[in-house]
Design a protein that fits this description.
alpha+beta, globular, ten-stranded mixed sheet, 5 helices, 17 strands, five-stranded mixed sheet
Length: 280
Amino acid sequence: MKIARNDEGFLVEHPDGGWIPVDRLGLSTPDTAAVIDQRGALAAALDRSGPGGEVDVRTLRHPIVRPGKVLGIGLNYMDHIRETGSKVPERPVLFAKFPNSLNDPYGDVVVDSGLTGQGDYEAELAVVIGARTHRVSADKALGAVFAYTVANDVSARDCQVVDRQLSRSKSFDTFCPIGPWLTTADVVADPQQLAIRSWVNDEPRQNSSTKEMLFPVAELIAFLARGMTLEPGDVLLTGTPHGVGFAMDPPRFIVPGDVVRCEVEGLGVIENRVVGPTGG
């Protein structure tokens, strides 16, 4: 099942084609957690309905509404660790990416030169938690996943260095484009076997696979749930592969006028124009 959102609210893709507004199925879904809570009723209503209508993907909004937590993982791809010459982490490197950073799958990313001169892109597999989860073992952790989607963990590299932490530099407004829809976990056979790619101005930058993850999705969930309760609607960005701008020689940062496209196999594509603070 695919679940998206536009200005009218959440949408669900019909198996026979097209998209149906969830409210027309008689369900109230003010946020992502409500969608998760009513997943059974949503599936049953779809079975009784006919095909939906067409939707312009570029009008879609981000499908994450009022998450309790947006979490990110650093240095989680072996090819990215190699390109940066970093030490292999002994445990996941966790940071917060605050909800104000959430952006639409085709929304503009604002890179303000007054804040950063080193904006960077990071194509990522994002995980949406579907069940209250605490102290789960890795072999059962994938049962906590509601859906997967595509994210761009936009980062201000110079601010990372100056701040000596990651959360502010990754949480500027618009710095988390995500979508274009949620693909429920039952559709994804193995989250560790997905191609992941990015382009800047149609130039290939990242081309890898989620099998390069140092800590797979299941291990990340088990690690996080040891000390914090994960709630339905929480989001986990699972790291980025090699090919980011700051690791190139010389570094190539994103600037107004650039267009960044990110894709995860089977989950869709997001594409975002980089603009300055006044929109140009």
